Structures are given as C-alpha cells and as structure tokens.
C-alpha cells in the first residue's frame, strides 16, 4: 500500500514548483476558489487509493498465487519491487509533462480512462513476466493520473484554504483503503472482474472530476534539469536536522511496507483464522479497522503536538508504538492478535505521519527552497517502498516464515524512533 502521499504507494514524485507562487496576492495566475473542488479532490484521491490498495494488496497477490503457489512470495516481491521502481521514475516524468502543458484536467482524464483497458489486460495474463509488464503499465497510467491530481491543490486552491484541501486529499487514503479492501475481497474469487471494477471506478472518477472541476490554462513551468535535482538532493541532506528527519522517515516507512505489502499472504500462511473466515474476508475487516485508528490518531496526534509544542516526543513515541504493534503478530498467530496489531499499528503510523510531516516543515534548510526540499523528503517515502518487497521476500524465504519479518520491521521502527533524538531545532 502506499503512504499518505504513498506506495504505496507507490509512485512518489512531486512536480516541481512554479517560479511564481500561483497563490501570491495579485499574481496573474492566482487560483480562485472552485465550487465543489474539495469534494472532487476527496473523490479523486479515494478512487486512486482504492486501486492502489485493492489491486496489489489483494487481486495481484491472488493472481500471482494462482500462477505459481510455491514461489508466490518471491514472485510477488519481484513484481512489486519492479513496478515500484517504474512508478517512482514515471511519476515525476508525468508531472513534468503536465507542467509543460499548463493544464491538469487532460492528464487526469487520460490517465483515468486508460486505467480501464490496462486493468483488463492485467486480468487476462497468465505468467509472472506478463503480470509484471501489465502492472508496470498500470503504474504508468495511474501516475499520469496521480501526478496531475496532486498538482491541483497548489494550482487552484488559495493559500487560506490549503488546510481544508489537504484534509480532503488526506481523507482519501483511509476511505480509499477501505473501499479497496472491500471491493478486492468481494471479487477475490473472480479477480479478473475485480480488476475491471477498479479500472471503472478510476475512469468514472476522472470523467466526473474533469467535467465538474473546470480549469484555466496555467503558464507552462520549466522542469528542473537532472543535474540541479541531484545537487538539490545533496544540499538538503547536508543539513543536520533535515538529514536525521529523512533517515527516521525512511526507516519507519521501510518497516511499515515490508509487512503491509504481504498482508494477504500473512493471513493465509501465518495467522490462525476463525473457521469460516477467509484471508480475503479478513483483509476486508482489518483495513477499515486500521483506517479508523489511523484517522483518529492523525487528528489527535496533530492536535496534541500543537497543544504541547512537542514534535520529537510524539514522533518518537508513535514510531515506538508502531514497533510494539509489530511484536504482536510475531508473538501470536491468533486472529485476535492480528486485530490488535491492526489497531495499534494504525494508531502509531497515523500519528507518526501527521506529526512527522509537521516536524519536517520545521527543519527545512531554507524557506525559499521548501517545495524542493519536501520533494527530497519524498525520496524517503518512495525509496523504501521500492526496497521493501525485495527485503521482505528475502527475509521470508530465508527464515521460512513471517515471524522474522515482523521482528526486523519492529527493529527498523525502533531505529526510526531513535533517529529524531539528534534533531536540535525542534522540541
């Protein structure tokens, strides 16, 4: 699955900032409030996350298991890892193309409509190689959609309304995750139909968004040369506090996705499910439970960290809580243990992402390079998602089970908690 903002998704590039702030007062391209834009942003992101959760988290795992049940873990890790690399590379390319055109709606519409035939293709292939190719195409069209949709907020939402817009976008993750899990479970025995349903959801949402959210052509934006992007990455990481924030985020995201990506197989091969409850139905129960816990801790953690002005404390404590959650299924294979893990993990990860994002904005090296440096931080979200499937499949294959995977992920989360201690400029 993806981290808010990913992939878990899985593509994580952020289009480069415009030279002129479109939200600046008096700017010739200052965005004007768009009636109904916030519900459309929520709907667009919900559809995107539904596919990102339901396809790789359920249908793709079932398809790969049907093709080769013996080597399903290694094959799933391979397909997930290669597609994550493809998505991470393609997202900024798609963003740059929409920047150059000065428009977002055509790219949202194109990516959304193309999702339907690509999902049809994915459901019709029968080898691991062809599944890999088809899912990489799926990542391509979804990143066209995602890159353009992500740019709508800075393009069209006034600065005073950015908080509400961010909330609308952020709520798409837990709601979309729940929808994805429920739809995936409903079509677990007919995954080809399930692929079409997810493609249709994204396509219909793209049509709805572009029909209802009118846009004015923006001045084309010049993309940042590759050499400048590399130099910017190195410059940001030279800053002491930003570097430790980057390391902490990367470690926690790696631990989280190493487990999250294999949830269906964990339920099939590690958890003692009650009689009559299938692994697919279990996912459909766990995902809403996790999402509710995540929403609660995101709101509560952000509010409490503001109230007490203590970011490091909440970031470290929530990362430690995530580590504690991972010990539950390592010590118990019961269904009750998995339910407890889902709740505690949601509480820890939701609070971490909310407060850590606030912490990062406080340790950015230069205010004038804020957008650029937040893009650098995005590597800490995307990079671990690329590595996680390979790492997880290797650990499971070598250890012969999932207990070692939980323990390694817990250690990574502990290190993520400790990484905030050296930060000096934030309490």
UniProtKB/TrEMBL annotation:
Keywords annotated in UniProt: Membrane, Transmembrane, Transmembrane helix
Protein topology in the membrane: Multi-pass membrane protein
Major facilitator superfamily (MFS) profile domain sequence ranges: 38-427
Pfam families assigned to the protein according to its UniProt record, in alphabetical order: MFS_1
Residue ranges, annotated region (Disordered): 1-28
Segments crossing the lipid bilayer: 37-61, 73-94, 106-126, 165-187, 193-213, 246-267, 282-304, 313-332, 338-364, 376-396, 402-420
UniProt-listed Gene3D superfamilies: MFS general substrate transporter like domains
Domain of life the protein comes from: Bacteria
SUPFAM superfamilies linked to this entry: MFS general substrate transporter
Compartments it resides in: Cell membrane
Listed name of the protein: MFS transporter
Organism: Streptomyces litmocidini
